[in-house]
Specification:
CATH class of the largest domain: Alpha Beta
Bound molecules: 3,4-dihydroxybenzoic acid, fe (iii) ion
Shape: globular
Helix content: 25-40%
Distance between the termini: 44 Å
CATH architecture of the largest domain: 3-Layer(aba) Sandwich
Number of domains: 2
Number of strands: 10
Radius of gyration: 25 Å
Mean pLDDT: 94
Number of helices: 19
Low-confidence stretches: 442-449
Structural class: alpha/beta
Order of helices and strands: HHHHHHHHHEHHHEEEEHEHEHEHHHHEE
Length: 453
Amino acid sequence: MTLDKPYKDIPGTTIYDAEQARKGYNLNQFAMSLMKPENRERFLADQSAYLDEWNLNPVQKQAVLDMDMNTMIAEGGNIYFLAKIGATHGMSFQQMAGSMTGMTEAAYRDMMVGGGRRPEGNRLKDLDGWTPPSNEKAQTMRPDAPAKFTSALFTSHVPAIGAAMDLGKTEEPYWKRVFDGYEWTRKWAKDNAPDVVILVYNDHATAFDASIIPTFVLGTGAEYPVADEGYGPRPVPDVKGYPEFAAHLAQSIIQDDFDLTLVNEMVVDHGLTVPLSLTYGELGPDEQWPTRVIPLAVNVVQYPVPSARRCYELGKALRRAIDKWDGEELNVQIWGTGGMSHQLQGPRAGLINKEWDNAFLDHLIADPLGLTEWPHMEYVDEAGSEGIELVDWLIARGAMDDQFQGGEPVVDHRFYHVPASNTAVGHLVISNPAAPHLSEPASAGANPEETTE
Ligand code: DHB
Ligand code: FE
């Protein structure tokens, strides 16, 4: 069940993957800094002092000082980053490549002029006993996988909910009606802190501006600062990531034909922090969230946005990736955030469609595959332009046991309320059959008349 990395066996070759990138992060970022003339000047004036600004490990630092590119590559460097170091020393790509072969510069140049290195004897397929790995996608769950996907949590992430908490307004009647719907969840969350939450949300022109529009972003970093969205950063803890598990997920999901954007450094906005606050309550900036978080951001700002079907399929790839983990035992939750119906723009602002929202919840629970056939237009037309956020929810649902021939999920909690700010608040906790359940029945919170019928 370990990940397929057949490229590791190719003779004389190091492939720069997420694992290598993690090892070489500081080395590569140092190399990138040499794209500025003033940094090249400072580096050449005192290499050791300049390198000390970049937190390299001792092997990496010595390799840079020795211009030992093989060691830099082994230590996670990538040739296109390292080329900036070579360029700073006035080396050509041919000199850099040749320096790693054990040949003299002249001999390497002559070899290239003579037609280059022949592949015979230098290929993986020339090695005895090598067979290509199979590329089949698992359609069933892996029994006894060390990482267990236990529960899916879905919730709106309205920024005003975070502001109500930050400003101490949760007991005001308007807000109490919202927070009552999360009372069950807070109790459940106390006994069910997972080791990691894969938190699906959408960035709201916060970490990503008009210069870059990635469709699916997986956070592979160690830490994510809370964004300042114009009101100052929310007074809540920064978010701790889980780089090893995230790199594993990235490797598996991309090999599963899903193209992700991997991000090591980004701020996180209300889409990610408000669900954490709703679930874990008031925590100050010096405290810690009770779980590590792997952010998974979906573009729903600029069209075209991914379809519900595509999000569901990403969920399936995500589950295969979770099942392939061979590290420590993990309790994994996947959250889907955003929605429900809301429109924040134009003369139709304020649109709420209670019937459609509840039909969405019904189908999410009982008929997720059918739900994937609802087109974008349906979300926008029925649930408002910003109701499109609901496609985020399909990812967690696609990863559940029943989509891999396992048992159907248990509905632990369901809540629906209008309004919070401009939005209909929807909230659902559903769990795979083997997950622990709170003994209380699935409830509708303290205001049953306001919840789904
Ligand atoms: C509101 C809701 C959102 O999901 C969001 O991202 C921004 C604002 C609102 O209802 O005000
Ligand atoms: Fe939103």
